[in-house]
Amino acid sequence: MKVKLLKFTQEPEKICAMAARLCYSNAGIDKIVEEFTTRKIKKLLAKVISSGHHSVLEHVSFTFGIEGVSRALLTQLTRHRIASFSVQSQRYVKFKNGIDFVVPQTINKNVNLLKKYNNFLKNSEKLYKEFLDFGISAEDARYVLPNACVTKIVITMNARELRHFFSLRSCNRSQWEIRDMTCRMLKIVKKKAPLLFSDAGPSCTRKACHETFPCAKPWKKNSVE
Ligand SMILES: Cc1cc2nc3c(=O)[nH]c(=O)nc-3n(C[C@H](O)[C@H](O)[C@H](O)COP(=O)(O)OP(=O)(O)OC[C@H]3O[C@@H](n4cnc5c(N)ncnc54)[C@H](O)[C@@H]3O)c2cc1C
Fold first, then answer.
1. Residues 107 and 194 placed together within one structural domain of the fold
2. CATH code, 34
3. pLDDT at position 212, please?
4. pLDDT tens digits, one per residue of 113-129
5. Which residue has the higher pLDDT, 170 or 218?
6. What's the CA-to-centroid distance between 209 and ligand 1, angstroms?
7. Number of structural domains, the chain?
8. Region 170-182: what's the mean pLDDT?
9. More confident: 166 or 223
């Protein structure tokens, strides 16, 4: 899996803090921009984040390029409606030179099951190619491809949506592949905008766990630091 930050709003912390300042100030825009110090940014952001005034976090966005993740991950990811997505098309792209698949650890460590898994993938790929060679369109031939197929995604989220996404998908109870991707994204944005994301992560790191069936173990924080 590859997770790369492609672009993000410059000075994201300052933009969000200025938006917050504007809400509570009589001063004009120029004065607000002028009088900003790092200390003020820190104080304001801590205040808006703890008070729940999260709309100011919508002024900055982060765009990631993701590669080598499964279509199974994609179905979970695209449930997040506030994000913007561009996904490699299985209608327009013909995978004639081989298809890559994700192999879950649980299957990978069992020799017998792995053999069956690989056989199944090989057969579906073979049938897919046979359909293409017969003249079946890629959009129809893809029906024989499994969830394990890898895909490429460009995704953009604003900081508010990212924090929400991190809360749900970096959780120990989240499915392992989307959790892995989410933790990599969190690690990257924490470095770029620590004041926006230092407390981001599953709900148990801030308050009570939101899960119906809590994992009852500490969050593996190391994966994002
Ligand atoms: C551990 C886990 C297990 C899951 N299991 C299942 C499952 O078994 N079956 C299943 O179908 N899904 C499942 N989901 C997906 C889940 O139900 C959500 O669809 C997904 O997490 C997106 O969350 P969201 O709607 O909060 O996010 P977003 O779509 O990104 O929305 C962000 C926030 O915006 C607001 N919002 C967005 N759209 C609307 C709207 N139309 N109306 C009002 N408010 C809105 C809400 O406050 C929402 O929380 C699972 C998710 C997780 C994390």
1. no
2. 3.30.1360.170
3. 73
4. 999 999 999 999 999 99
5. 170
6. 17
7. 2
8. 93
9. 166
Nearest CA among 206, 200, 211 for reference residue 172: 211
Under 8 Å between Cβ of 33 and 216:
no
- Using an 8 Å Cβ cutoff, are 154 and 63 in contact? yes
Domain residues for the domain of 100 are 91-148
Closest CA to 13 of 197, 218, 208: 197
Pocket test for ligand 1, best of 57, 77, 168, 203 (most atoms within 8 A of CB): 168
Same domain, 122 and 191: no
Helix H or strand E encompassing 84: strand 84-87
Whether residue 164 sits in one domain with residue 143: no
Q: Are 185 and 137 in a shared domain?
A: no
192 and 135, same structural domain?
no
Closest atom of ligand 1 to 173 CA is 1
CA–centroid distance, residue 164 to ligand 1 (Å): 10
pTM for the model: 0.93
Pure H helices in 53-110: 71-77, 105-108
